[in-house]
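Let us work through a complete example step by step.
Step 1: write down the sequence.
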Amino acid sequence: MAGTTSLRSYLSGTGDVLYHTPVFTYSIDISHIYKKRMELAYSSYKYSTTLLSLESQISYEKYANFTKVTTIELVGAPIKYLVENGYKPIDDYKDYIKTKRKHGNKV
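Step 2: predict the structure and record it as tokens.
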């Protein structure tokens, strides 16, 4: 049985977390928002060798009885990008918790 692998996490000064991956990794989610509920319609990961220039990471489209929400989020990047943009390794989960609380967010 193959063992599990863990991705090393990196934290920016603003509290953003990215994983070290060989290429740029994006999470794409499409949700439908109805009057009394929300449904996840599609979720996928896409990969790119270059950083994509995204105008808007969240887009909304209104239909007759629901709103379609599309979100694109960068979740992983090569080590060169992480170092050049000031991301620091998260060595311990406790360090991550302290940083999140310092910025006023609850975990």
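Step 3: interpret the result. The mean pLDDT is 81.
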